[in-house]
Amino acid sequence: MPHCSFLDGRRAMLRFLAASPILAGLGLPRAWMSVGAQTPDLIAAAKDALDVFDFEAVARKNLSPAHFGYLETGTDDDATVRANREGFSRYQLRVRRLIDIGKISTSVSLLGAAWDSPIFLCPVGSHRAFHPDGELAVARAAKTGKHTVMLATPSTTSIEDVNAARGEPVWFQLYRREDWNQTRQMIKRAEAAGCPALVFTVDLLGGSNRLTGTRAQRRDTQSCLSCHVGGLNDNRRKPMIADLKPAPAAPEVGPPTWEFVKRLKDATPMKLIVKGIVTREDAEIAVGHGVDVVFVSNHGGRAENSLRSAVECVPEVVAGAAGRVPVIVDSGFRRGTDIFKALALGATAVGVGRPYIWGLAAFGQEGVETVLSILRRELQMAMRQAGTTTTKQITNAYLVDRLPTVPSGRQ
Predict the structure, then answer these.
(1) Which of 366, 295, 280 is nearest to 120 (CA)?
(2) What gap in Å lies between CA 49 and CA 374, rounded to an integer?
C-alpha cells in the first residue's frame, strides 16, 4: 500500500485491519476504526474526496481482486513501491512569508509547447480493466484540465480514438516488440496520428517479479473470459498490438542497447523520450544519443526492486542532463507537495499513474477529473505557502535535503 508519512501509513494499516479477521481476534469494536482512528467511510461521489487516497478504497471495492492486484503490485515484496513514497520525506520545504501570492501560475514549457500544468498522465495499460469507458474517459478528463496524456502500448482503445477524445494528439509510449517491423508499424501509426513524442520505456527490459499481482490473480474466483479469452497474454483487446499487419519478419538479435535508441531516432521525426533513467551516467549517455527528454522512473516500483525512490534519483539525473534536455519524473506522486519537491529538484513535469486510475475505477471520467483537480489545487497551495508564484521560481532554494550527499554511481 502506498504511504508517505506516519499518518498515511497508519491509515493504510487501519484499512487493512478493518477488512481483516485480526480485528475480530483483538476484540476491538468496529467503531474504533472510524471514530478513534479517523478512518473515513468510502466516499459516495468524486466531489466528496479530500485527497487522492480517498479514491483508492473505492477502486478496491469496485474492482476484481486480480485487476486491483495488477494495479497495486510492485516487484518482489513491493519495497520499492513503499520507497517511492518514503523518499519524499527526505526533503523538507522552506516556506516564505508576506509575498504577493494573489496570482499563481502552474504553467510550464516542454518541447516547445506550453502546458497549463506540470502534471501529466502516465502510460497505464488496459484502462478498460478498470472502467468500461477506459482510455476515452481518461482522455476526456485530461482535456477538461488540459493535461498531457501518454498512451500505453497495451491500451484498450486505439490511438486515433484517444486523440479525438483528448482533442489533440497524445504522446505514445512504446514497448519494443521482438520483431522490428512490428515495432516500426506502431511507431508509424503513432506518427501518422500526429503524436508529437515517442516514449521508449526501458525499465522493464530485465523483467519484473510481481508477486502481489500474481497472488491477487490466484485469489480471484471471477471469470475473466470477457477480457482474456485467450489467456492473460491475449492482445485482441489492445488495438496497437492487435492491428499489427503481416510483414517480412525482422527479428531482433538480443536485447536492445543504446544502439536501439539511435534506430528509433532514425525511424521517426517524433521527439524521443527515454523512460526509466535513474542514474547520472545513463542520463549523460541518453543526451549523447540525441534523446529529447530524459524520463526518471522506476515504473512505480514495478520494475527493479532497487529500494531507491524516483524522486531521490532526480538530482543526479538532472546533473547528468546538465540543462541540455528537460527531465521529467513519475513514480509515487500522490500530493501537491510531492510535485513541488520534484520541480524544486529540477524536473520540468511530473507524471501520475495509479491515482488517476483509482479515480477512473471509482467514478469514471469524473473521478479522473477530480484526482487531477486535487493535485493541481494542492500544488497551488504549496506554491502559495512557499511564496513561488510561477513554476520557474520553484528551485532547490525551497528545499532542505536531510541527506545532502547524492551518490553518483562512480568510484
Answers:
(1) 295
(2) 9
- Residue 147: active-site member: no
Angle at 260 (CA atoms; ends 256, 264), nearest 5 degrees: 135
- In sequence order, the 6+-apart residues with CB closer than 8 A to the CB of 2 are 8, 12, 53, 56, 81, 82, 84, 85, 332, 334, 354
Residue among 1, 61, 12 nearest 37 (CA): 12
**Catalytic residue of the set 3, 131, 147, 299:** 299
Do residues 238 and 348 share a domain? yes
58: in domain: no
Residue type, 5: S
CA distances to 158, 161, 244 from 273, in Å: 21, 23, 23
> How far is Cα of residue 101 from the mean position of the Cα atoms in its chain?
30
b/e 44-72 (16+ beta carbons within 10 angstroms → b): eebeebebbbbbbbbbbebbbbbbbbbbb
- pLDDT score of 25: 38
Residue 262 lies in a domain: yes
Q: Is residue 180 domain-resident?
A: yes
11's grid cell: 491509515
How confident is the prediction for the chain on average, in pLDDT?
Answer: 90
Entry pTM:
0.88
Please give the grid coordinates belonging to residue 310. 524516483
| Residue partners of 170: CB distance under 8 A and separation at least 6 | 139, 148, 149, 150, 151, 159, 162, 163, 195
> Rounded to whole angstroms, what are the CA distances from 257 to 105, 382, 410?
40, 40, 21
Is there a contact between 83 and 309 (Cβ–Cβ < 8 Å)? yes
118 and 199 part of one domain: yes
- How many Cβ atoms are within 10 Å of 3's Cβ, its own excluded? 18
Residue 74 lies in a domain: no
The model's confidence at residue 11, banded by pLDDT at 50, 70 and 90, is low
Sort strands 197-201 and 271-277 into parallel, antiparallel or unpaired: parallel
pLDDT value, residue 34: 38
Q: Tell me the residue range of the domain where 325 lies.
A: 108-400
